[in-house]
Design a protein that fits this description.
ATP-binding, alpha+beta, five-stranded antiparallel sheet, single chain, 3 domains, 13 strands, ligase activity, D-amino Acid Aminotransferase, Chain A, domain 1, ligase, nucleotide-binding, RimK family alpha-L-glutamate ligase
Length: 289
């Protein structure tokens, strides 16, 4: 059997950032004809493809409603449009906190509202954003600078997130656990990104990645996170072609959820074992059923 698959980028990255270099061949082995396309290419018939996979649509933050409208026009989109709508606004963290998950404490500050600054170092970032753009770290007591940053986000129409900075990131970074079709595939660490420089595309901050074997307590929290998110979305975990769970450790060493990436995350293929693209291709094939 033969199938058609489109991997989706954006105008700045029409063929992704290079991380998926081994994915097209793995898909071809399972009967897929594969091409890349920017999500806003009017000449491409996305609705005719057997599967359309969001991979590097990282300009969505500036064009979110237009992007979500496009998502809703693509029947075979993975992950599906309702998932993308929910996950591209970090307000979803408040919903996950409501399920009882250990999440980095998060305050949502809408335009016109005043923030309550944590007593330690903290981060202010837009609730809709990709690649850590618009995120800034402030020292305890730096309320004036933080208010200026918050005002700039509000002037751009953004709701902001205020979170205490997790100092473990400076030494241990973040741990990203990757799942395909709801099943664990691999993990990698990410160095601290705040203060890093933008990539040449201007869409995301550069970061240093390395393969890792996550501790049992990290695996357990990632599993709990996928279960909680799937329940909130009213879907089965298997309906998620991919998921990336970003975890950090709190001041007491216990794991905390930093973000759950279900829309267009980098999946760290370059830092995974050679079987990862094959597992991903198998999960894409599963989505057809």
């Amino acid at each position: 059997m033969s199938f058609s698959a489109i991997l989706v980028g954006c105008p700045q990255l029409p063929e992704g950032d290079g991380d998926e270099h081994a994915v097209p061949a793995a898909l071809a082995d399972l009967g897929f004809g594969v091409r890349w396309a920017s999500w806003d290419e009017e000449s491409v018939d996305f609705a005719a493809a057997d599967v359309v996979v969001l991979r590097a649509s990282w300009d969505y933050a500036e064009r979110r409603e237009e992007f979500l409208g496009w998502c809703e026009s693509v029947p075979a989109l993975a992950n599906a449009a309702p998932v993308v709508r929910w996950n591209t606004d970090k307000a979803y963290l408040a919903e996950l906190i409501g399920t009882g998950l250990p999440v980095v404490p998060t305050e949502l500050v809408k335009p016109g509202d005043e923030a309550r600054w944590p007593g330690s170092d903290f981060v202010v970032k837009p609730s809709v954003g990709a690649g850590s753009r618009g995120a800034a770290r402030f020292a305890a007591g730096a309320g004036e600078d933080a208010r200026a940053h918050l005002a700039a986000l509000h002037d751009d129409g953004h709701t902001a997130l205020v979170q205490p900075y997790q100092s473990s990131v400076d030494t241990h970074g973040e741990t990203a656990l990757v799942y395909f079709g709801g099943i664990y595939s691999h993990a990698f660490t990410k160095s601290a990104m705040l203060g890093a420089e933008l990539d040449a595309s201007g869409l995301y901050l550069t970061e240093t990645l390395a393969a890792t074997e996550p501790a049992a307590e990290l695996r357990a929290l990632a599993e709990d996170t996928l279960d909680a998110a799937s329940a909130l979305l009213g879907i089965l975990r298997a309906e998620l072609l991919y998921a990336r769970v970003d975890l950090v450790r709190g001041e007491d060493g216990a794991p905390l959820l930093l973000e759950l990436e279900l829309a267009e995350p980098s999946l760290g293929f370059r830092h995974a074992d050679p079987g990862a693209p094959l597992r991903f291709a198998s999960a894409v094939r599963q989505q057809l059923a």
